């Protein structure tokens, strides 16, 4: 019985140190951020003046002076 207790104590002491490990920081996988760019649209600030300019040109071109 003494040999068994000695063997069990020795095995218990070596097993606990064999399974012990240091602190390992958790690894966090970082996913890249995807920024989606919107499709380019027409600029309304240029469309309205262009239409007005075409209207003025059409009015001047259609001016009939038969007098």
Structure description:
This protein has 67 residues and is an all-alpha fold. The protein contains 2 helices and no strands. The protein is rod-shaped and about 135 Å long. The mean pLDDT is 78.
Write down the overall mean pLDDT.
78
Radius of gyration: 43 Å
Helix content: 40-55%
Q: Extract low-pLDDT stretches.
A: none
Strand residue content: under 5%
- Give the distance, in angstroms, between the N- and C-terminal Cα atoms: 136 Å
Secondary structure tally, helices: 2
Biggest sheet statistics: none
Query: Count the strands?
Result: 0
Using the alpha-carbon principal axes, give the shape: rod-shaped
Structural class call reads mainly alpha
């Amino acid at each position: 019985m003494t040999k068994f207790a000695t063997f069990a104590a020795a095995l218990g002491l070596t097993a606990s140190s064999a399974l012990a490990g240091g602190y390992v920081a958790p690894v966090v996988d970082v996913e890249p951020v995807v920024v989606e760019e919107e499709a380019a649209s027409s600029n309304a600030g240029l469309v309205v003046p262009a239409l007005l300019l075409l209207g003025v040109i059409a009015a001047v071109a259609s001016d009939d002076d038969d007098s």
